[in-house]
Design goal:
The protein is of the alpha/beta class. The protein has one domain (24-235): NAD(P)-binding Rossmann-like Domain (Rossmann fold, 3-Layer(aba) Sandwich). 35% of the residues lie in helices and 19% in strands. Helix 3 packs parallel to helix 4 and helix 3 (45-55) runs parallel beside helix 8 (192-211). The longest helix has 20 residues, at 192-211. The protein is globular and about 50 Å long. The chain starts with 7 loop residues before the first helix and ends with a strand. The model has no long low-confidence stretch (mean pLDDT 96).
Length: 236
């Protein structure tokens, strides 16, 4: 991306997140000059993409295939009943654009294959991985490793969610945790509130990394058991 300077309008827009304990002006500037890939953008990726767009990441690239169906609407915050039965990515991208005119949003109407994931990674500063299948998650992990990018992996089941944040110096990424892809449950149960919570935390870690502010939870797994009300954090 071309190095761009914050305008006066943007400084006003982001005034509430600049100052002590949040972002510096330089940190906000770094966000503007960053690009992030989020895939997919359903229950977790949607809130993550929303928060990154609202925070002022300069380019947000989303990827999500298929059409919106009614069971998606307990958790997919970028969709609505008005677009049921229609392709998700174009509507999701348009909604994100409506939130912040200062952010460039690209929508890919499918999940990227190996070559496409590598090409997208080469255009980004960070990847937020939110797919349900381990095949997709491991593909994104490899693309991030090849491009030497920070990698954030978010997962959910029921009322429980997990978040892993990988530093580029530590490789391999997901293969260290999942040497073999576990069994996948196609229609796993999930409550939308845990999806949104984990997606927002993924965005927070991305904002810290891209802005250079705060302490990311590098090489840690954060697990929130919402059913029991317990939080654990372990070293990967």
């Amino acid at each position: 991306m071309t190095d761009l300077t914050l305008t006066a309008e943007e400084r006003e827009r982001y005034a509430r997140q600049m100052g002590p304990g949040v972002l510096s002006l330089a940190g906000q500037q770094r966000l503007k000059n960053s690009a992030a890939l989020i895939t997919r953008v359903g229950g977790m990726g949607g809130p993550a993409a929303q928060m990154l767009t609202m925070a002022g990441v300069g380019r947000v690239i989303i990827a999500h295939g298929g059409e919106l169906i009614s069971p998606d609407l307990n958790r997919q915050v970028l969709g609505s009943e008005a677009v049921l039965g229609e392709p998700r990515a174009p509507h999701f991208a348009q909604y994100l654009r409506s939130l912040n005119r200062f952010v460039e949003v690209e929508g890919l109407p499918r999940e990227p294959d190996d070559a496409e994931a590598a090409a997208l990674a080469a255009r980004c500063n960070l990847i937020v991985s939110c797919p349900p299948t381990f095949t997709e998650r491991l593909r994104l992990s490899r693309a991030a490793e090849q491009a030497n990018l920070p990698f954030i992996d978010a997962a959910q089941w029921g009322m429980t969610g997990s978040l892993m944040v990988f530093h580029p110096d530590k490789k391999p990424y997901l293969e260290r945790v999942y040497p073999e892809p576990p069994e996948f449950e196609e229609l796993f149960p999930v409550v939308g509130a845990i999806s949104a919570a984990i997606g927002a935390l993924a965005a927070l870690e991305a904002i810290k990394i891209l802005s250079g502010e705060g302490k990311p939870i590098w090489n840690q797994m954060l697990i929130y058991d919402g059913f029991q009300g317990r939080v654990n954090q372990v070293e990967i």
